[in-house]
What we know:
- By secondary structure, this protein is α/β, with parallel strands linked by helices.
- The protein is built from ten helices and six strands, in the order βαβαβαβααααβαβαα.
- Helix 1 links the parallel strand 1 and strand 2.
- Helix 2 (about 45-55) packs across helix 3 (about 65-75) and helix 4 packs antiparallel against helix 5.
- The chain is globular.
Amino acid sequence: xxxxxxxxxxxCDAELLAPQAExxxxxxxxxxxxxxxxxxxxxxxxxxxLLAERPGPLVLVGASMGGMVAxxxxxxxxxxxxxxxxxxxxxxxxxxxxxxxxxxxxSLFAAGRMDxxxxxxxxxxxxxxxxxxPGLVARYLAMVRRAGAEALIRQNEAVMARPDLRPELPRIxxxxxxxxxxADRLTxxxxxxxxxxxxxxxxxxxxxxxxxxxxxxLSWEQPARVNAALQAWLRDAISA
Length: 240
C-alpha cells in the first residue's frame, strides 16, 4: 500500500497537519507524519533521510518548508514518489531581501527575542480574518515555541541555502497538487501557478487549488477545503 507522508513546515510539528492526517486516515489512507525537517542541515539531506526512513511507494504532502523537502525527495527518487502535494510552498530560492530578513530574525532568535519575531510574523502567517482569532494565533505561537530558537535558526538556514528548483520541475514524474491560500503573503498563488504550469509542460497531471479565506497556514485556517482538495486529488490522480 502507498503511504501518505505529511511533512509540516518550518518550526511546525504534527499539529499543523493534524486535520489532514485525521481526514485522510478516516478515508482509508495509510498516513504518517514526518518531522524530518528537525534533522539535517540542508533540504537535500532532509529529503534523503525521509526516503531512507519511509520504505516503499510514497505520496508526499508537504506544507511550506515541508513542501520544499518533498520536492527534493520527488526529484531524488521519482520511481518511489507516486504523488506530490504542496500546501503553501514554492520552488523558488529566497531573494536577497528575504535572506536578509531571515538573517535578522535568526540574530533575534539567538538573542532570546523569539516571541518578538513570532508576533511580528502573525500577519504574514495568517489571512487577516484568522490573524484576529486569538485562539488560532495562540496555537501557532505555542507550536513554534515548542520548536525552540535553535531549530528556528537551523531550519531558516536550510531554507536560505536552498536552490531554485524551477528548472527541475519538468522532471517531476508523478501527479502533483498545489494548494495555496488566496491571501498567502509568503508563498503567493503565483508560486503555485508556476509549479503547476511547469509540471504540465512536461505532459504530467498537475492540479491547482486556490483556497478562499486562507493565508499561509491554510491547513488550519480552512481545513475542510484543504482536506477536500487532497481527498479528491488522491481519488482522481493517485487511485486511478
